[in-house]
Amino acid sequence: MLFEFDSDQQLWQKTVREVTAKECPPTLIRSVVDGGADPAPLWKSYLGMGWTELADPDAAVELAIVVEELGRATDPTPFLATTTQYAPLAGDSGPDHAGAAVYDGVKAYRDSSGWVLHGTALRVLDGDRAEQIAVATETGVFTVAADKVTAKRSAVFDPVLHVADVTFDAVRVDDPLTGIDVERARHIALTGLALSTVGACQRVLDLALDHVRNRQQFGVAIGSFQAVKHRATDMHVAIQRARALAYFAALTVAENDPRRRLAASMAKAAAGECQSLVFRNGLQLFGAMGFTWENDLQFALKRARAAEHMLGSASEHRALIAEEYRATFV
């Protein structure tokens, strides 16, 4: 495995960052939150640039770069759910439509007319605006058109994020998909959430550093104070650690490495611990200004926090990692 970006990946990262800075600026995010602006044109631009085609496992690292940068920009589109949750579960390596994934809460049974899905899936990312939904059950994976289910968007901490409870009331579906590795799909989903969190945390640090360089007290920038330096350094170290583990998880996906299961949980746990520290220190460095609605810091903070409540918290994945190691040495 290579643990540094090659020249092509470095160029790709630079390109994605430039595109997101132009197409997804803070003013757009604020217009979505404050004015109800429709992010559909931005989503269509991602489709037009072929970014959703990176859902193929061989392009896991390139997709990881996009997901991190979109997390940094507080992306308001269904890109994360479509490429890291729906596509791996539906076997769609290049979806041209918005998708969502359901991992729990729905059961499949067969009657005289065919397969039927019943149940309610809670907190489904983009469940209210997906065109197709991939559903993992004990029987297999089914795909369902969104107009066959009832989705109710939930009020969540991140006002840009779409999270919904999706109800399947005796929904008739075709036969289950074949050849789908549900466990692998979940690993990709965990890695995607971790990378999005890392990107949001990096945005918090960037904003905090810009603030402490310019904010003055006693005639000097507050960034020169030792206590401020310590907080900023702690944030940087936590982000670097979480980023390294997230990209390692992406590499295990790309190479179908058997360490993928452990790597995905490690990435999700590290990202969760990272956002907790970055959230606390980021607000502390901004002081009272960090709590104001006019400050764009709020969007990055809320995006960083959001993923902690999806597909398992840091403590839950810590427990999974410990259990894995205990099983290895017993």
TrEMBL record:
It comes from the Bacteria. It is an enzyme of class 1 (oxidoreductase). Its cofactor is FAD. Keywords: FAD, Flavoprotein, Oxidoreductase. Signal peptide: none annotated. Gene3D superfamilies: Acyl-CoA dehydrogenase/oxidase, N-terminal domain (1.10.540.10), Butyryl-CoA Dehydrogenase, subunit A, domain 2 (2.40.110.10), Butyryl-CoA Dehydrogenase, subunit A, domain 3 (1.20.140.10). Its EC number is 1.3.8.3. The keyword Oxidoreductase applies. InterPro entries: Acyl-CoA_Oxase/DH_mid-dom_sf (IPR046373), AcylCo_DH-like_C (IPR036250), AcylCo_DH/oxidase_C (IPR009075), AcylCoA_DH/ox_N_sf (IPR037069), AcylCoA_DH/oxidase_NM_dom_sf (IPR009100). GO terms for molecular function: (R)-benzylsuccinyl-CoA dehydrogenase activity; acyl-CoA dehydrogenase activity; flavin adenine dinucleotide binding. Residues 192-324 form the Acyl-CoA dehydrogenase/oxidase C-terminal domain. Belongs to the acyl-CoA dehydrogenase family. This is Acyl-CoA dehydrogenase. It comes from Rhodococcus coprophilus.
